[in-house]
């Protein structure tokens, strides 16, 4: 018989997950993915997509399995075929080359990116120098700069400000890529304004609501976390920014993964609280898979941390909606005709 000492065994450390909300799909991504899915249903595969429709490995592979063909440029699309432009937006010349090849273009550019395009055209028409804050080579930056190439100057972060030159310091405005770090963007703006006191701001914030919201909730949970895991692809600007924001806000470590199996047990060793979020192009099923993965390792207590509710939605592109209506009307007419023939028979 074992002796009873009266000394309680030490309990295992509490393991929990702080699940960020909002997370995952934004309205622009949802619209873009739906555009390709509806186009595949309506026209049948293959449907060509210029660049990745959104920057997420899982989404692209899923659409590829359904019949989408992803290409780098319009010249890879057969003449007369359907091509969808990605959520990141394209320069005017991309529309022109599509028209020259007789392609049926469906533009899935996020309306918030389209807003920045409109701003670039308007300020260029008024003779402004446009300082575009963004990352060199990003598809969204290429598209926006293409709207007014003679007026746009890229500013890739605060340290790039010293290289900025303008024609008229009284006619200069800043615009930004929609998926940047809010804090870093404002640091860049502050440096620009110190150099150019008459610098104007865009009529409304260019950084999209989803980017801002996802960063805000990560800032709230990060100080409580040993580790923050961000689900998202490495070519997703907003996902990369979330991992950076988590560290800046106080998390001891942060990691970016596409899938649950990429999580190393070493990351979780000694951790009691794990933060979990996802980029704006990530379907929630991937986050749920990470939750399952963490639960298997003892992190089975989940608290969802919500900072705001998102209700914004965008309608599908006009060209696609028009063809969907026409197809629905044709189907309805055929059904009516069949019903009439049966009645008369």
Query: What proportion of the residues form beta strands (DSSP E)?
Result: 15-25%
How would a crystallographer describe the biggest sheet? 5 strands, parallel
Radius of gyration over all CA atoms, rounded: 25 Å
Q: Order of strands in the sheet with the most strands? A: 10-9-11-1-12
Low-confidence stretches: 1-10
In which range does the helix fraction lie?
40-55%
Separation of the first and last Cα atoms: 92 Å
Number of helices: 11
Overall geometric form: flat
Structural class: alpha/beta
Write down the secondary-structure element order: EHEHEEHEHEHEEHHEHEHEHEH
Mean pLDDT: 94
Number of strands: 12
Short précis:
The protein has 345 residues and is an alpha/beta fold. It contains 11 helices and 12 strands.
Which terms would index this structure?
single chain, 345 residues, alpha/beta, 5-stranded parallel sheet, 4-stranded parallel sheet, 11 helices, flat
């Amino acid at each position: 018989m074992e002796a009873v000492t009266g000394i309680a065994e030490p309990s295992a450390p509490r393991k929990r997950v702080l699940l960020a909300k909002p997370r995952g799909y934004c309205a622009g991504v949802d619209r873009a993915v739906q555009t390709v899915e509806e186009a595949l249903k309506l026209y049948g595969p293959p449907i060509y997509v210029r660049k990745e429709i959104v920057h997420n490995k899982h989404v692209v592979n899923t659409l590829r399995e359904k019949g989408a063909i992803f290409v780098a440029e319009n010249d890879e699309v057969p003449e007369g075929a359907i091509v969808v432009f990605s959520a990141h937006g394209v320069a005017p010349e991309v529309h022109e080359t599509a028209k020259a090849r007789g392609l049926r273009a469906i533009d899935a550019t996020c309306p918030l990116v389209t807003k920045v395009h409109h701003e670039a055209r308007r300020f260029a028409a008024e003779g402004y120098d446009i300082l575009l804050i963004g990352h060199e080579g990003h598809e969204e930056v290429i598209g926006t700069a293409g709207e007014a190439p003679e007026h746009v100057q890229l500013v890739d972060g605060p340290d790039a400000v010293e290289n900025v030159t303008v024609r008229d310091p009284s006619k200069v405005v800043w615009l930004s890529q929609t998926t940047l770090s809010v804090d870093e963007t404002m640091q860049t703006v502050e440096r620009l304004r110190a150099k150019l006191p008459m610098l104007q701001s865009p009529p409304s914030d260019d950084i999209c609501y989803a980017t801002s919201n996802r960063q805000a909730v990560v800032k709230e949970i990060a100080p409580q976390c040993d580790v923050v895991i961000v689900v998202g692809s490495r070519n997703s600007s907003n996902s990369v920014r979330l991992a950076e924001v988590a560290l800046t806000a106080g998390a001891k470590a942060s990691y970016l993964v596409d899938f649950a199996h990429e999580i190393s047990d070493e990351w979780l060793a000694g951790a009691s609280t794990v933060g979990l979020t996802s980029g704006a192009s990530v379907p929630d099923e991937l986050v749920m898979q990470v939750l399952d993965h963490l639960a298997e390792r003892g992190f089975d207590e989940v608290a969802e941390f919500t900072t705001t509710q998102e209700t914004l939605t965008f309608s599908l592109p006009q060209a696609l909606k028009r063809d969907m209506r026409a197809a629905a009307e044709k189907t309805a007419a055929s059904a009516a005709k069949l019903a009439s023939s049966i009645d008369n028979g």
